[in-house]
Amino acid sequence: MAKRENTEFEFRGLNHLALVCKDMERTVRFYRDVLGMPLIKTIDLPGGSGQHFFFDIGNGDSLAFFWFPNAPEAVPGISNPGSLPGGGQFVTAHASMNHVAFNVPAEKFDDYVDKLKAKGIEVSPVLNHDDSEWQVSREVHPGVFVRSVYFFDPDGVCLEFACWTKDFDESDVRHAPVNAAGVKAVARAAE
What we know:
Distance between the termini: 17 Å
CATH topology of the largest domain: Signal recognition particle alu RNA binding heterodimer, srp9/1
Strand order of the largest sheet: 5-9-8-6-7
Order of helices and strands: EHEEEEHEEEE
Largest sheet: 5 strands, mixed
CATH architecture of the largest domain: 2-Layer Sandwich
Radius of gyration: 18 Å
Number of domains: 2
């Protein structure tokens, strides 16, 4: 993938993304025992206010979970997607977390989809994202830029296995952003 330099800050990837779970024991079983992510740090929060656990997701990055004893229930379709892509409502509220996409090797993608199914995880159809009108193809072709499969964790967090299939260049940044009213900005999209 073509690298563009950040002249403001030196980011080194994602330190951690912190989510909230309903049951830390169930979360550990899923992420450590089913997906194979090593549990690397556990914290009991002060005064019995909860727990904070960290899983290694590779490349020096982590996925973390909080458990709070009095956390409100999830509201599918608002706080998280109501269904997997292609199966219904995938839109979520402002400031919600729509999904977490894990970068996986392209050459292992199909095997990983089969492995998820063998573990009893319900997955979406494989989506080969391209620049066509519907932005997805049934087949992999030179215009496909990423392949994706989606699934839920036990709390309804939408997860994705994704693999890039092409290198991006300046021509891949060509859409102006829209504002809250849905009006496209006049500013250059590539900045």
